[in-house]
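It would be a great kindness if you could assist me with a short task in structural biology. A protein sequence and the structure tokens that stand for its backbone fold form the material at issue. I should value your view on which stretches of the chain appear to form regular backbone elements. The record follows directly beneath this note.
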Amino acid sequence: MASTQLSHHNFRPIPAVRLTSHRLSPTKPTTTRLPLQYFKNKSSTLKLKADQKHIKWAIGLSLVDQSPPKSTVDVERLVGFLYDDLPHLFDDQGIDRTAYDEVVKFRDPITKHDTISGYLFNITLLKTLFRPEFQLHWVKQTGPYEITTRWTMIMKFILLPWNPELVFTGTSIMGINPETGKFCSHVDFWDSIKKNDYFSLEGLLDVLKQLRIYKTPDLESPKYQILKRTANYEVRKYTPFIVVEANGDKLAGSTGFNDVTGYIFGKNSRSEKIPMTTPVFTQASDAELSKVSIQVVLPLEKDISSLPDPNQETISLRKVEGGIAAVLKFSGRATEEIVQEKEKALRDSLINDGLKPKTGCLFARYNDPGRTRSFVMRNEVLIWLEEFSLD
């Protein structure tokens, strides 16, 4: 939905140009009508063929006024309208079709429609097959008759038994018809691909890539919002969460795991059992990825002041303040070497994209390695970012 802007120019009709030609030999003047495509730029040199002879003509043409006609369109009002209307894209209320021309150009990398009916049919199809969740980040005027929106769309493909989650983020360019004051075009651009023109093979491959199987346990996890998804990583905004942690040895290691799980299984000052969550984190807090702790996330409704104290001095409770993290997702059994390779690949991608990654990283494991086949395991490497903007 779009990071490239479209220009909408309205050209006034140009009448046919009448040229009077005088042959080199004294004859009666003739009149020739030329189609518009012969005239380019402010001055054009035209070649005409007459009686086997080529005659050059120099024709001075005044520039055609290409500025849009005066309009009373209230673009600021339309910006506010989209803030209210687009969140209903996939709910029972739906968008207001009266805000669109009947002939409206809709394009994304793998879909196109040229009427409002086709556009609404596409929305209905997505609702039926994917159960989409649409998040609108911002709406801005980016031209005299152009508005840009930034969004995230998360979809679960319900026809496949593992219900894969597809994530798309990007921008949409909304063109406004200056005569009707309605939207006449809607063009989407995805952050995850480079070729956004229809039909994009890269876009189709991006969809197919996201259909792979990941097994995520039906357990509570830290809450986050996906702000952007590129070809190499996601950028997420995490809300605060609490962890119980102990010292570890390696990012892919399990040292300290029994201690932190012992706390939630009742080895605490109140012998209180706490529900299991996911993922299990290992965190490296130094640049060499050598200073490691292992963490289990506690249920989100828990408050750190009301939790029981650990029985062991090596166990501690800590509130993670959340923030913006870049995340690289992968499957398989993760060795120390693989995790560090993924961390380096993610860090290099962030630096290449002009972002500022913090020191260290988190490695998230969502599955029990003794009960889960390696090819469906969900693993993630997270790196906190110094700053991030969607502008």
The mean pLDDT is 87.
